[in-house]
Amino acid sequence: MDETVAEFFKRTILKIPMTEMMTILKAWDFLSEKQLQNVNFQQRKESLVQDLVLLCEKKRASVHDAALLDIVCEDIDLFDMEQFKSSFKKILQRALKNVMVSFRDAEENAVWIRIAWGTQYRKPNQYKPVYVVYYSQTPYAFTSSCPLRSNIPLLGQALTVASNHHKIVKMDLRSRYLDSLKAIVFKQYNQTFETYNSTTPLQEKSLELDIHMDSRIIHENRIEKERVQRVTQETFGDYSQPRLEFAQYKLETKFKSDFNGDILAERKEPLRCLIKFSSPHLLEALKSLAPAGIADAPLSPLLTCIPNKGMNYFKIKDK
Amino acid sequence: MSVLRPLDKQPGLNTATILLVGTEDALLQQLADAMLKEDCASELKIHLARSLPLPSDVNRPRIDLIMFVVNLHSKYSLQNVEESLRHVDATFFLGKVGFLAMGAGQESHCSIHRNTVTKLANTYRSPVFFCDLEREGFRATVAQRLVRMLQICAGHVPGVSALNLLSLLRNSENPAPEDL
After folding, report:
1. Which of A124, A178, A253, A261 would staple A118 via disulfide (CB 3.0–4.6 Å)?
2. Number of domains in chain B
3. What strand order describes the sheet that includes A313-317?
C-alpha cells in the first residue's frame, strides 16, 4: 500500500472516538466480522489503529475505500442527544444534591437546558436559573450569566464530559442577543453573496449624494468622503452587523510620553484602567463613526476585530 | 503649503461665498440647507469642507467668510479646526472668520470646555457663536445670522464692512484681551 494511503487510513481511523469504533467499522463493511473479532479493541488507541491499518493493507485497501470510511464517519451522527442529556444531568446531580435540570430540543440540533441551582440544604431556586444552549454539531455552547459563580466550573465540566470533549474554554464574548452571538461564532454574519459588479454600487452611492445637493452647496472634500465610505465598506461590509451592547478593554500598560522627565512615564508599575464602550447596537455605531466625521478611517483594529475574533472583552498588556 | 487669502480673486457679481469647515458633515449639510432657505438678495454659495487645506486643483470663487465649526462633545473636531487654522492667511482674520461651537447645552457630554473655544477665538481675534445645530429652530436662527454676516463680509451691505462688524461684535461679546 502506498505510504500516503496508509497515512490517510491512519488519520481517518484516529479521528473515530473509541466508543463509536465498532459501529463505524461495521457500517464501513470492508473488514469482515471475523477479522474484526480478532482485533484487540481494549488496547491503546495508537496500537489499535496500527493493527487496523495493517489489516487494511493485507486486504489491499485502496484510497477509495479510505474515502468511503471517511464518508461513513461523517454520515453516522457521532452525537447521541439522549446520551448527552442523561450524562449532563447525572454529572450535575452527582455533584450537587439539589439541582433541577430541564431540557428542550430546538431547531438545528440545538438543545436548551435550564438549570435551577440549590444547595445541600436548600431546594433549587427557580427564580435564578441558568440557561444553556448547546449546538451539538458544533463545539459551542451559549450560557446566560450564572448568579452563583461557584457553580460555573461544575457547569463547564458537565458540558465537557457529556459532549465528549476534553476541555472547555470560556470565550470573551458577551451579548444579550443569542442570534448575534451565533452569527459571530458560526461566522454567519458576512454572508451576502458577492456578485460584485464594480461599477454599479458606486453609481448608486453618488446618486444619493446628488439628490440632497443644491447646486449652491459644494462639497470640497468629496474625494476624502468617498475614501472614507470605501474604507468603511471594506472593514464592515454591506451586511447588517451582529448586535452587541458592550466592548470592554482592560489596560495594563505603561504610560508613554514624548518628553523626558514625565512623572507618569517614570512609574515602574503599569497603569490599570478599564475602557468600556456601550451602545444599543455597538457595531453599527462603530460603523457609522467615520462617515459621521467623529473618527478617522480606518478605525483602530482593536475596535474592528470584534466580530472577526469573536471577542468583546479584551485584556491589553505591554509585551 | 496652500493658504487661503481673502482678496486673491475677483469677486463674483452679486455673489457671496461662505466656507464651512468642520468634521461632522451631516450637520454642516443641514446648516447649509437652512442658510439657503433664508431670503437673501445676494446669490449664496456654500462650500463645505472637512478640513483645510482645500484641494488645490479646483476653480472656486472668492471666499468671503470662513466659519469653523467645533463640536464641544468631540476633541477630534477641535483638533481638526486647530490644524485647519494654519492654512488661513492672517488677513482673513480681519472680520472674515468666525467660530461656531455646538453642544454646550449638554454639559455632561462635553469633552471640551467652552472656555477653550472662547480662548481660541480670542487668539484669532474672531467672534465665536455658541449654538445648537441639531434642533431646527435654533439652526434656522444661526443660519439667519450667518447669512447677514456673509452679506456684510462680501461687501453687499452699504456702509458696513467686515471690520466694522468685527469691532461691533468684539466690544459687546468678547472684549479683546487688551481691553480687560
Report:
1. A124
2. 1
3. A271-278, A246-253, A313-317
A228-275 residue pLDDT tens: 999 999 989 888 889 999 999 999 888 777 777 677 777 778 888 999
Q: Do A292 and B58 touch (CB under 8 A)?
A: no
Mean of the per-residue pLDDT values of chain A? 84
CA A66 to each of CA A36, A45, A70, A77: distance values in angstroms, whole numbers, following the listed order = 17, 18, 6, 19
Question: Which chain B residue lies closest to A225 (C-alpha atoms)?
Answer: B50
**Which residue in B26, B32, B44 is closest to A292 by CB distance?**
B26
- At residue A202 the predicted structure's pLDDT band, cuts being 50, 70 and 90, is very low
Residue B47: domain span: 15-167
What is the C-alpha to C-alpha distance for residues B51 and B25, in angstroms, rounded to an integer?
11
Within a domain: B174: no
SS3 A156: helix
Does B8 map to a domain?
no
Give dist(CA A171, CA A194) in Å, integer.
Answer: 30
Least confident of A137-151, B41-55, B89-103, B118-132: A137-151
Binned at pLDDT 50, 70 and 90, residue A284 comes out as: very high
Quick one: pLDDT band at residue A40, thresholds 50, 70, 90? confident
Phi-psi region of A70 (alpha: psi -120 to 50; beta: other; left: phi over 0): alpha
Q: Is residue B38 part of a domain?
A: yes
- Give B-chain residues touching A215 at CB under 8 angstroms: none
The predicted complex's ipTM stands at 0.85
> How far apart, in whole angstroms, are the C-alpha atoms of residue B65 and residue B63?
6
| CA–CA dist A227, A77 (Å, integer) | 49
Q: CATH code at B124?
A: 3.40.50.300
